[in-house]
Amino acid sequence: MIVHDMVIVGGGLTGLMAAVQAPPGADVAIISKVYPTRSHSGAAQGGFNAAIGEDDSVEDHLFDTVKGGDYLGDQDAIEVLCSEGPDVIRQLEQMGVPWSRTPDGRPAQRALGGAGFPRACYAADISGHVVLHTLYERALAAGVRIYPEWRLVELLVEDGALAGLLVYDLATGRLEVVRCRVALLATGGYGRIFRKTTNAHANTGDGTAIAYRAGAVLSDMEFVQFHPTTLYGTNILISEAARGEGGYLFNADGERFMARYAPQKMELAPRDVVSRSIFQEIKEGRGLGDGYVNLDLTHLGADKITRQLPQVNELALLYAAVDPTQTPIPIEPAQHYSMGGIRVNLDCETNIPGLLAAGETANVSVHGANRLGGNSLLETVVFGRRAGKHLVKAADRPSPPPRSSLELALARWQAIFCTGKPPQPGDDSTSAIRDAMSRTMTDKVGVFRTGEELREAVEEIAALRRRYRALRVPPGEHPFNYELIEHLELGCLLELSEVTAGAAYRRTESRGAHYRMDYPRRDDANWLHHTLVRRGGDGPVYEAGPVSITRFQPQKRGY
Amino acid sequence: MRLALIINRFDPQTDNQPYDREYTVDWEQHETVLDLLLKTRREDPSLAFRRSCRSSICGSCAMVIADRSRLACHTLVREVAGDGGSLTIKPLPGFRQLKDLVVEMDPFFDALKRVLPWVIIVPQHNGLVSPEDSERIEPPATCILCGVCDAEVRQSGSVTPAALVKTVRLAVDPRDALGTERMKITGLTEEGLQTFRELLASVCPKGIKLPPVTLE
Questions:
Q1: Residues B86 and B110 reside in one and the same domain
Q2: What is the C-alpha separation between A324 and A303, in angstroms, rounded?
Q3: Which single residue of A166, A391, B112, B131 could bond A153 by disulfide (Cβ 3.0 to 4.6 Å)?
Q4: Looking at the predicted complex, does its ipTM rise above 0.90?
């Protein structure tokens, strides 16, 4: 048995930022299924929004975020996000983040979509990478205990409160019980429920799904962000910074088609608007090839591209065999970010005492129905910091007594793993079910949704869950048993697919990233509320939750 | 197109020593070696290798591909598939093989820790950094800690190659209290550093070119 005062699951930006808040000598541990520097936070390219410019204001950032989220974001949470932004950027500076710089030495800022100001602090187009590595360095400096390549298996709740965690050590293939006073989930998103996604293979929503099974309330799962510019075919992310630096989108007729949909903001409209516009062009026959449009950077010149967008340049050259300084890049929208997650309050507390959640894992809700570029990286550090401070407070109590439920759960999982038999040829497989699930989600729960397709998706996912339950569990105690890990991950993905499709079917309106062709208008009278979901005995149980509206009443949203 | 993928395998629970196993896989022009490994694992789920981002930023999938250490996701099949239609994949050399293509990473990260790999901020630093300094910091800050340089380069003084890259990144940061003092622990001469610089540029998947740094 492993015992720590504070346990953080996930070693990306949120988890690391939380870990380094603890005072010297504090007993804090990070459990992460990858080495922290492998976390998907490192793939974030564009930047961290913060109103630090002389002509910018927290008020403007707040309004842009509220409007960008189509009025579903909680304005009290957005106020925290935007008002703490400048201070957290100063703190990152002191931690040693290597920002790109203005001529007078301050962090450089660029425009991203839906923003009224060039507000995103950046480091070329590797912004997530440099902050991830800086926070990892701080965690080493602080002596944070790291358990790399350990995966969460179950959260144990007794008498309604967190009693411990069950985790699986990849290197040994052994299950361990972890006891702690308080735990934080910072496990990121679950883009791998979709076939077309920018997300890493590791982004399987383990924390979100496992918390849901333990009784945590999820919210706004129907709101999924589709990034407009991913490489056609591989869906590798091409940063919004490419448009922030001046890139254009062209259809097959050579038109900058965004003029039709967002005449003011053009290519820098919010992502939901741009992704819909791209698919509309393709639907109306103005796409290229089998269904893409062009992202053209050639007019920016080789110097600007290689200096400001070196990674975009490298990704296009390697993965699309396109030289962006000479040729437009073929792009298509793909899943990128999960607005929904574990419902938490401003202190990152879930409805389970002793369990916190923050970052993409959580829904606090700062992004509402659509996230603006640059706000998720900001969320990781603002709410990672808040979660870290709250962990310290919450850990200031005696350790809960050892619980029999921990040993029982351990024995239960050990039995499952030990009885596992290797699959036989012809058996159903994890990869076959995963392929079917991700195809259903991309085809039927994508940018344009209809009630009929969503209902089909719900039924198909239910059938896949039945197939999953009939699978043989791969045998347990082997080192680096990725077969078992992928089996466990698929269970999480199916859980989250079910509520994503289910919540999307229920919401009969269009708001932000959730677009229903059969209900094309926003319906504030009936739907200006969060979708809350709990796991019931017969499947998900949905209810409505209030939205915090403090300063900005809903208005028509145009760009 | 089709090729024979020869993968060095080892399961500590059943094998006394590593052995090569051959798989036949179909591949297409745009595919990476990681794509081939993912396809292979669909057929043989027991195959162990690390992967995550598939876009050359997480640093998980370093291994030996056609006799050279590289990232599987950063390597196009068409650039390494020999005329004979076969491709050999092995674990990263200099690292202990734990299972198949998974190697022990803890010593790599422990070696990094020994160079105090964090900015020790100059007291009351005003947070301003010139664009020129920022441009010097950027190349080594691009390092993804994949381990390829540790596997391929021996001439990095008294620190490991990745730790040397981190040392240079910190030494050129004007906010760091140790600054170029940090270079002392490397025991490198100007000439030795230049040799390392050239070797690194030739093996690093991110193509890191170390900036000039004063050796005191």
A1: no
A2: 12
A3: A166
A4: yes
